[in-house]
Amino acid sequence: MKKVEAFIRHEAFEPIRIELLELGFPSLSVTEARGSGRQAGIVEHYRGAELTSHLRPKIKLECVVADQDVETVVQVILKHGSTGNVGDGKIFVMPVEQAWRVRTGERGESILQAHREQ
Ligand SMILES: Nc1ncnc2c1ncn2[C@@H]1O[C@H](COP(=O)(O)OP(=O)(O)OP(=O)(O)O)[C@@H](O)[C@H]1O
Ligand SMILES: [Mg+2]
Question: Does any domain span residue 48?
Fold first, then answer.
């Protein structure tokens, strides 16, 4: 298992969420994040808006998936997250040792899959 952790623009989140859902990845977490990239303190432009703060608001998206699904999830984030402008964000992938579904006590990779009974 791996955690895909992405810092993305707010505008990118909804299309990413929708495509991940369609592809069978409904489970994710989102946090309002603030951070800086390598242009710390430099003005950014996004669709006509000028952004001058040193700490830019970003969405932190976390999605734990099976190893073989990392590439799919990353490609969805790249597809919808890239505008070609600075500040599009970053994606990190890290190992996850174990996972449990609290309701049932099940563990392991199988708990990551979408299932019929909700
Ligand atoms: N190395 C890092 N560690 C943790 N968070 C990071 C790191 N790099 C970027 N971030 C987060 O991602 C956000 C977006 O970074 P950003 O897209 O500006 O990266 P960049 O390296 O400057 O690339 P670009 O040149 O495309 O802007 C930052 O505001 C921060 O929240
Ligand atoms: Mg940057």
Answer: yes
